[in-house]
Amino acid sequence: MTAPAAPVHSPSPTQTAGLGDNVPRYTSYPTAPHFHPGVDAVTVRGWMNALEGDDEISLYVHIPYCDRLCWFCACHTKQTRHYAPVATFLRSLHKEIETVGRLVSGRGRVRAVHFGGGSPTMLKPEDILMLGKALRDRFDFLDDASLSVEIDPNDMDEGRLDAFAAIGMTRASLGVQDFDPRVQKAINREQSFALTKGIVDAVRARGVLSVNLDLLYGLPHQTCESVAVTVAQALTLAPDRLALFGYAHVPWFKKHQTMIDEAWLPDSAARLAQSQLAARLIVDAGYEALGLDHFARPQDMLAVAARAGKIRRNFQGYTEDQCETLIGLGPSSISRYRQGHAQNIVATGEYEKVVNSGRLAIARGVEFSLDDLARGWIIERLMCNFTFSAAELVKRFGAVGQTLLCEASRLAIGGAGQLLRLDGENFVVPQESRPLVRTVAAKFDKYLNNGTGRHSLAV
Q: Which of 44, 116, 64, 5 is nearest to 336 (CA)?
């Protein structure tokens, strides 16, 4: 299956009503607001025990600290100018790695590791080396396992670059957001193009073959003109991948976002124009559009996976990672097992207390029903490929799939027909409506109106 082209056409007036919808990003289903404490450490131990020896697993390592707080950020992190809290946390993280490694010993091999945060690049070089060693000592790594690192260029120096290279970094993901100084000042993320270029060159000099740049639209003071300049600068760095995210303004969830004056933010129509202009410029430069907001060079593994119909979506976004099991380490991290999702305790102090006692730090989660799996499959296919097969839905999920097929048919011929259409045996999001794919996915989310969770704009 070939990945559809970039969503660069403006939606019709009928469809623009969806621009102001607040819907989940659908990096999981059910989404995190619907996790509950009924899934606990005992539950997750059982899920770990069900892993089999030849299972391939991914690891996500969450570092919940930054040395500065970017006001646009919605991640679980905290600012510290002192390293002592980070060192204390790392001792607990090593304890969790020991506990989890013992529980899954002999039941899985690591295919991929992703360091996120927070800022994993604020760790001292010696701590990076110790963390890499601990993971390899406690888990069985495949010889060709990948290791991705989220990089804040402001943190990096030769020692940190050497340390990440030494533990096997294969992919570097650099946060850029925007190169306009006025925008950077408004989001408290000042970072020059020269600094970014220097880090891109440095990771490549150390043998890293895949470099990703993260860009944002919808930020304060952004215009189509300024976004175009940032995209042009980013393209001169020849990244292997680009991610183009919409800024999620959620001040009710992250209080530091109140530092951003809402009068500075573009409206929904301007956000759409910015996203479509940026997408068009990236595609015109020879990149393939993947899902809602990712782009890759045709030879990149993500693009290859997309052309084969194997692109996936998880908590880190779009990925070629096919592992059914993703184990999260660190406070707030989310795991996915065949049986369900589980999230660690968010508060760092409480997390440290629990893992230091040798227990799993599970706070909540959700166990999948067959209906959850079927709806999650539809949502992932829509988010990745803008289409799903009616025949495959029924083949995979039987009577539950047949029920959802009827639901999809009603949507396609009803009021949502502008957003979802039946083309042969496939349900398809029309080209002009693909910027609203999150809104389409939400039509299959049975939990969406049953909780108190609030979400960001669809575009």
A: 44
Mean pLDDT score across all residues of the chain? 90
Within 8 A by CB and 6+ apart from 45, the residues are 103, 360
Closest CA to 292 of 386, 216, 396, 418: 386
Lowest-confidence pick of 137-141, 315-319, 343-347, 357-361:
315-319
Residue 78 has pLDDT above 90, yes or no: no
Q: Phi, psi (5° rounding) for residue 24?
A: -65, 165
Could you tell me if 115 and 93 are in contact, meaning their C-beta atoms sit under 8 angstroms apart? no
Among 72-81, 244-253, 292-301, the least confident range: 72-81
Spatial distance between the Cα atoms of 62 and 330, rounded to a whole number of angstroms: 5
Contacts of 281 by beta carbon, 8 Å cutoff, 6+ apart: 228, 231, 232, 235
Q: Residues, the chain, total?
A: 459
DSSP 163-176: HHHHTT--EEEEEE
Q: Cis bond leading into 30, ω under 30°?
A: yes
Q: Where are any strands of DSSP class E within 226-271?
A: 241-246
**Cα(40)–Cα(37) distance, integer angstroms:** 6
Give, in order, the Cα–Cα distances in Å from 96 to each of 5, 35, 102, 235, 335.
Answer: 42, 22, 10, 40, 14
Edge-first strand listing for the sheet containing 325-329? 288-290, 294-296, 241-246, 210-217, 171-177, 140-151, 109-117, 56-63, 325-329, 334-336, 340-344, 362-367
- Residues 419/429, Cβ–Cβ less than 8 Å: yes
The whole-number pLDDT of residue 316 equals 82
CB 212 within 8 A of CB 174: yes
Tens-place pLDDT, residues 359-371: 999 999 999 999 9
User: Hey, what are 400's tokens?
Assistant: 């539950």
